[in-house]
Amino acid sequence: MKDLERRKALADFLRSRRARLSPADVGLPAGTRRRTPGLRREEVAQLAHIGVSWYTALEQGRDVRPSEQVLNSLAEALRLSPAEKRHLFLLALPHSESQQAASPPPETISEELKLAVHALNPHPVYVMGRRWDLLEWNRAAEIVFSFSSIAPPHHRNLLWRSFTHPDLKSHQNWHSVAKSLVSQFRADSARYPGDPSFAELIEDLMETSEEFRTLWKLHDVKSVREGVKQMDHPQHGRLVFHHVTLQVPANPDQKIVLYTCSEETARILSKLVL
What we know:
Elements: H1 3-19, H2 41-48, H3 52-59, H4 68-77, H5 82-92, H6 97-101, H7 111-119, E1 125-128, E2 134-137, H8 139-145, H9 158-164, H10 174-189, H11 196-208, H12 210-216, E3 227-233, E4 237-248, E5 251-261, H13 263-273
Antiparallel strand pairs: 1-2, 1-5, 3-4, 4-5
Helix pairs in contact: 2-3, 2-4, 4-5, 11-12
């Protein structure tokens, strides 16, 4: 992400967060002749105790350098979640040119982690890298998610799979899951300025998927959640899991995603992984 792209991303993010708030949300009178939804720029500036012209410059993508104190005030004024606040700081605090120009090394995982992933059958487990490329998965994960069937050109990418796999869109809650994935990926992508593989993936998804284009323009950001996942598998029926995402201690860019089976799901998958 070059400096101009970073400033545009920051401007778009601020506008999107401002547009979702009403005066009532922040304790301001509604007033009259409000032509567009959301807060006005001067209202955000008032809430954050900063100058209107200075805030306007931020939303116009101009080269201004806010302090951490100002960013904290903006996060409070715009009612940002913790994940959104982290995203704001990543976009607003410029990275060095050396960081932007650096090419990340190829991603690998240790033999010990590979052994652990496969030892956890029948519980589906996979490891994904900084760009959500799948680095390793076990037999249970292949049975449940059919990772080997991901289409090119990003045949190992989890986000690409979510928007191009024909069976996934038929799921009843696909749209809410897709929205959550895009907001998580946006938060992750801001952490890797200068990595051209992110721009390539996003561009390909924008060309391929109307749903992705719509969700990406929302500029929503959120962190990874733990929880319960229920799915009706076309071959194996109802499957129920508790899922959690962990960082690899030796490489925080990588994540381990573990689906712990319910008793009945473990019984079903145990027969299939042998």
